[in-house]
Design brief:
This protein is mainly alpha-helical. The protein has a two-stranded antiparallel ribbon with strand order 1-2. It contains 6 helices and 2 strands. The longest helix is centred in the middle third of the chain and has 23 residues. Strand 1 and strand 2 form a beta hairpin.
Length: about 120
């Protein structure tokens, strides 16, 4: 399933927050991303409809199996690209911001080549 950049950002945010806490609420996502409640509600509704996120009986957000797989992939792109840029001498803040933009548009082929290069040269 192809998601827009914003949908990927929501999935990645839920994934990151779930690594820090077992309980992730819509308000946590909004605070983390700096978005309003209506924006978060609409986006989460679309992700639920797509079968990527569900809300449990207590109102906590959980990624589905496919949502988790996609979120992990997005997060891996983010972390690998950030490491690459820092390794090239870019400051951490800029590297993180640029990785966040690029992670949504880089092809699988190019990303896999970057990962292979980093492994080969110990980056």
């Amino acid at each position: 399933m192809a998601l827009l950049e914003s949908g990927e950002m929501y999935l990645e945010t839920i994934f990151v927050l779930s690594q820090k806490s077992n309980t992730v609420r819509a308000i946590d996502v909004g605070e983390y991303m700096g978005f309003s409640k209506p924006s978060v509600s609409r986006a989460l509704g679309l992700l639920k409809d797509a079968g990527l996120v569900r809300k449990d009986n207590d109102g906590y957000l959980k990624l589905t199996e496919s949502g988790t797989a996609l979120a992990k992939s997005i997060y891996e792109r983010h972390t690998v690209l950030t490491r690459l840029f820092i390794g090239l001498g870019v400051d951490e803040e800029t590297a993180t911001e640029d990785a966040c933009r690029i992670e949504h548009y880089i092809s699988d082929k190019t990303f896999e080549a970057i990962k292979a290069h980093m492994i080969k040269y110990g980056a």
